[in-house]
Design brief:
The structure is a single chain. This protein has 676 residues and is mainly β. Among the domains are: 66 residues, no CATH class; 127 residues, no CATH class. It is built from four helices and 61 strands. The chain has a 23-stranded parallel sheet that branches. The chain has a twelve-stranded parallel sheet with strand order 15-18-22-26-29-32-35-39-43-46-48-50.
Length: 676
């Protein structure tokens, strides 16, 4: 029984036929219809097509079965089946001889392309099937059709009779052009370029352009290439593998090139290209330009379901618009370790006035990386969701491009995870950019075991970031020179090294809203983990709860010899927004030798500055040991960390002094004021 390549797709062949017709019977069981399996001519059926081993058995005039190649029906019936409009294929009794001779003359099978080129092919034959490219069974089997002139591409041959034949496969492979996945022995760059040359690409806007090139594999050997597969201008072109565990591409030689590249422009972008289902082996993470996929100015394209190993940068995106990066994986150690998983760079086209670089990254896993998970120097318009950026120096490193031309803006994260980095899990820095604004982080599931700061933000304005869990050895959230932004979330296990690192730290940052819960099993720092310096103004803080404070009585700004009874110096406070509410109790055992105006010193936050006193009059109770006072109160001055003690007399207010206190004085009260 001879197996043949498919010349015609038969959706189904029914058993029923009109009276007087020869039936074609379809079988899905290998061997049926063969003389050794089930002699067809013993049945009242005359023709059987076997879908399993793709043979056609015909009863000859002596009622003996003859196995032959796949035949087509008469023109009308053949056309109907080819177009999917017919389920029954019938042949009239008188037409059997005509069918056989007609169909045998229309198509032919040859072992290789050179074999077909070496003979004259009958003029009635319009298509041929090659069993291989250089040798039958080498994976290069393909169908060719007769054409009127020499094709401009390399998917062609000329038969001895002078006619030209062009490849007519819906999906091309390197093997059809002499390629081979043999682990880098064969250079597949020329065969792949030849395959790309067959397809038509239009201008990037017309439907139906491009095509697929399939990179099959056996799971152990890769397609070696000696240079970049250049997809520039090849709109609609897709490279598709059988999955990253079976299909792979590897660099050859020094490997100082990208495996797949697009070098387009903002005015002529490459559209709808894709790389899917492949393992990409680069030359090493320290090799310059040894990148997996490096695309500049692509529109509505895709890089999905790939595995990257040994790449300097797995994916590089420049000037992208709606580039889908989905379900990729970066992994490997040693020679297979990657430097950076996803790298988004500055515009390279001087005519680019838009500055878009919109990547839609979803469900990617980047781990065991040496440097960065995501390095978004310029990612305007990007959305990242449910990705894992693990290990390396930083998980997500955004902005800080070194350019004073392009702002850093319009990037959004949702549900992304960073973990076990030697530096920051999240790192945002404006650098010399005009501004860093309009960005958001939401629903982060985990930021674990980061050193220095779990999240570091410098120079931001008008950003909103929620960090679900920041787990760090040092600082949780570190804000520097950041304004008009909102940060929410949870910090855990800060100050693990007991070096005074707070859960949330603000330096030179103003007009922000901070709503965090900070907890640690180590030494707490600041206001339940919150610390801001004197240059950080008007920040509203929530969620840190009640905390102890250390407030003391002074006379003339000093407390020489002043002492408290056991438990006689107690203070607690809570901040809600910018409002500080404090309760205190002071019981003296000795008032000391200092003299002058009485004050409460050591407020947990400096009061807001301004022309008027902040906090107004907060009365206190002179429980005992205080004399010569009526209606006492404490008042916080602008920009101060102390409150003056005074009384309201018949003719006006007056300050209290050491003269009003004794060695046994006890005062208690509350104080409300607005923090700076």
């Amino acid at each position: 029984m001879r197996k043949i390549a498919a010349l015609l797709t038969l959706p189904a062949l029914a058993l029923a036929s009109p009276a007087g017709a020869l039936d074609i019977r379809s079988s899905a069981v290998a061997g049926r219809g063969s003389p050794a399996g089930n002699p067809l001519c013993a049945d009242p059926k005359n023709i059987e097509f076997n879908r399993a081993d793709r043979t056609l058995t015909i009863c000859d005039p002596s009622n003996n079965p003859t196995v032959t190649t796949l035949l087509n029906a008469l023109p009308a019936g053949r056309k109907a089946v080819e177009q999917g409009r017919a389920e029954d294929l019938t042949v009239t009794t008188g037409g059997v001889t005509e069918v056989l001779s007609s169909l045998q003359s229309r198509s032919a099978l040859y072992p290789t392309r050179s074999a077909a080129a070496a003979i004259p092919i009958p003029s009635t034959t319009t298509s041929v099937v090659l069993g291989g490219y250089a040798a039958q069974g080498d994976g290069g089997a393909a169908r060719y059709v007769a054409v009127g002139s020499q094709p401009s591409h390399l998917g062609r041959f000329q038969s001895l009779d002078g006619r030209w034949w062009a490849i007519a496969e819906p999906v091309l492979t390197p093997e059809m052009f002499g390629g081979k996945a043999d682990g880098g022995v064969t250079d597949n760059l020329a065969p792949i370029n030849a395959a790309m040359g067959v397809l038509g690409y239009g201008n990037g806007t017309l439907p139906g352009v491009g095509g697929k090139i399939a990179l099959h594999g056996n799971g152990s050997t890769c397609y070696g290439i000696s240079g970049s597969i250049d997809m520039t201008g090849k709109h609609g072109l897709e490279f598709v593998g059988d999955g990253s565990l079976r299909s792979c591409v590897q660099s050859m030689g020094a490997g100082t090139y990208q495996l797949f590249k697009v070098s387009a422009t903002v005015t002529a972008p490459t559209t709808k290209v894709a790389v899917r289902g492949l393992a990409l082996y680069c030359a090493g993470m320290n090799v310059y330009q040894a990148d997996g996929v490096d695309w500049s100015y692509t529109d509505t394209s895709a890089i999905t379901d790939n595995l990257f190993l040994g790449c300097n940068r797995g994916i590089v995106a420049v000037g992208s618009w709606q580039l889908r990066v989905e379900r990729n994986r970066w992994d490997g150690l040693g020679t297979q370790q990657n430097g950076t998983c996803l790298w988004q760079d500055l515009p390279t086209d001087p005519n680019d006035t838009f500055g878009n670089n919109a990547v839609i990254a979803t469900g990617n896993i980047c781990q065991n990386v040496a440097l960065y998970g995501l390095r978004a120097k310029h990612g305007t318009g990007s959305i990242y969701s449910n990705n894992q950026w693990l290990n390396g120096v930083r998980g997500v490193y955004a902005c800080d491009s070194g350019s004073s031309t392009w702002p850093c803006q319009f990037m959004f994260w949702n549900g992304d995870q960073t973990d076990t980095t030697t530096g920051e899990g999240w790192y945002f820095k404006k650098g010399p950019a005009p501004f860093m604004s309009f960005m958001g982080v939401a629903g982060t599931s985990w930021t674990g075991h980061s050193y220095g700061s779990a999240a570091y933000v410098e120079g931001a304005s008008y950003v909103t970031m929620h960090f679900g869990n920041l787990v760090t050895t040092d600082i949780g959230l570190n804000l520097v020179s950041t304004t008009n932004s909102k940060f929410t979330g949870t910090v855990r296990d800060y100050n693990r090294n007991n070096n005074g690192s707070p859960g949330v730290k603000l330096v030179g940052s103003s007009d922000n809203t901070i709503d965090f819960k900070a907890t640690t099993q180590f030494s707490a720092v600041g206001y339940n983990g919150y610390v801001e310096d004197a240059t950080s103004l008007r920040n509203s803080i929530y969620g840190f709860g009640q905390s102890a404070c250390s407030i003391g009585l002074q006379f003339g700004g000093a407390a020489a010899g002043l002492a408290y009874v056991g438990g006689g110096q107690a203070c607690s406070y809570e901040v809600n927004g910018r409002t500080v509410r404090m309760q205190y109790y002071l019981g003296l055992s000795a008032k000391g030798t200092s003299t002058g105006v009485a004050t409460l010193a050591g407020l947990p936050f400096a009061s807001a500055g301004g022309a008027v006193a902040y906090g107004g009059m907060s009365p206190f109770i002179a429980a005992s040991g205080v004399s010569g006072i009526t209606s006492p109160y404490a008042q916080v001055g602008p920009g101060a960390t102390l409150a003056q003690l005074a009384q309201q007399g018949a003719t006006g207010a007056g300050n209290l002094s050491d003269a009003n206190f004794s060695n046994t004085s006890v005062i208690t009260g509350s104080l409300t004021y607005t923090k700076q």
